[in-house]
Amino acid sequence: PVYWAIAEGAVRTGITLHRAVPRVDTGPILAQAEVAIAGDDTSGTLTRKLVEAGIAVLGQALDALLDGAPGRSPDLTRATYRTSVGHRPLESATSAVEAERMVRAGVPNMLAWATVDGRPAYVRAARLVQNGDAIRAPLLTYADGSLELVETAALCGCHHDASECPHRLTGSAGSRRSSVVTAVNSDVEL
């Protein structure tokens, strides 16, 4: 849920401590906490915030368990389930804003990627750029703006060769919505 909260542009998310039952996230709720999602949060930073929030309400959940409190039933009609996350291709994003969120959502474990100079480049940091901003290549251009690939790596971080990573999701040629400007600075790590 951390990946999808960032990728979909949510401004808040939370953590719920449930009484254990066989099906995930369906047990009675013992404690909950909400956290704000900052515009620069990554999956890594947001996970740390959620862990801290969970620790803060852990005592409340333990007290409820020890007191035999039944907890409250979750509203399963509002539950959502998402597919597992792989390395998402930035070329499939419909906008620069969506691509920037994909980058932040993938850091640190499932980095988004783009094709730069014919090779996959896994993106650890990116920034939205406006016309007139000083930029360094590589740059992805979308209908609503551009995304500068600030920090890239040849390896995904999953301990696989980039071209053979089983987690990398490839888009069809018809789904490409951006154009890639090749690297012009020799100090850009690709």
What report would you give on this structure?
With 190 residues, the chain is of the alpha+beta class. It folds into 2 domains: 2-78, Formyl transferase, N-terminal domain (Rossmann fold, 3-Layer(aba) Sandwich); 90-181, Methionyl-tRNA Fmet Formyltransferase, Chain A, domain 2. 22% of the residues lie in helices and 25% in strands. The protein is built from 3 helices and 7 strands. A 5-stranded antiparallel sheet has the order 3-4-6-5-7, covered by helices on one side. Strands 1-2 form a two-stranded antiparallel ribbon. Strand 3 (112-116) and strand 4 form a beta hairpin. It is elongated, with a radius of gyration of 20 Å. 28% of the residues are buried. The model is unreliable at 171-190 (pLDDT under 50).
Tally of helical runs? 3
Largest sheet: 5 strands, antiparallel
CATH class of the largest domain: Alpha Beta
Query: What is the CATH topology assignment of the largest domain?
Result: Methionyl-tRNA Fmet Formyltransferase, Chain A, domain 2
H and E order: HEEHHEEEEE
Helix content: 10-25%
Tell the overall outline.
elongated
Beta fraction: 15-25%
Let me know the average pLDDT.
Answer: 84
Give the total of domains.
Answer: 2
Low-pLDDT residue spans: 171-190
CATH architecture of the largest domain: Roll
Strands side by side in the biggest sheet: 3-4-6-5-7
Compute the separation of the termini in Å: 29 Å
Please count the beta strands (DSSP E, at least 2 residues each): 7
> Which structural category do the helix and sheet elements fall into?
alpha+beta
Radius of gyration: 20 Å
